Amino acid sequence: MKLHERIDAIRESKGITQTHVARVCGRNPQWYYDIKTGHSTIKAEDLPNIAKALGVDMSVFFDKKLSVTKNNEKQAI
């Protein structure tokens, strides 16, 4: 799974909007859409803010066995 796919899967599993992630990162929603669709690359300096917006540690973006919790229920992505 590509990085932008992991980020979006986490976002969706937590019920977080694209707009929320963009705003926490100081960007507009189009920025997130471009990342989500793979039309724009994710800059390393954006990763801490993306992790903050999603409420996760940055390491989950690179963990081969990615799982997140939603309502205390583990889900494999």
Task: Please describe the structure with a list of short key phrases separated by commas or semicolons.
434 Repressor (Amino-terminal Domain), mainly alpha, 4 helices, single chain, disordered C terminus, 77 residues
Write the layout of secondary structure elements.
Elements: H1 3-14, H2 18-24, H3 29-36, H4 47-54, E1 67-70, E2 73-76
Antiparallel strand pairs: 1-2
Descriptive report:
- With 77 residues, the chain is mainly alpha-helical.
- The protein has one domain (3-76): lambda repressor-like DNA-binding domains (434 Repressor (Amino-terminal Domain), Orthogonal Bundle).
- It has helices at 3-14, 18-24, 29-36, 47-54, and strands at residues 67-70, 73-76.
- It has a two-stranded antiparallel sheet.
- It is globular.
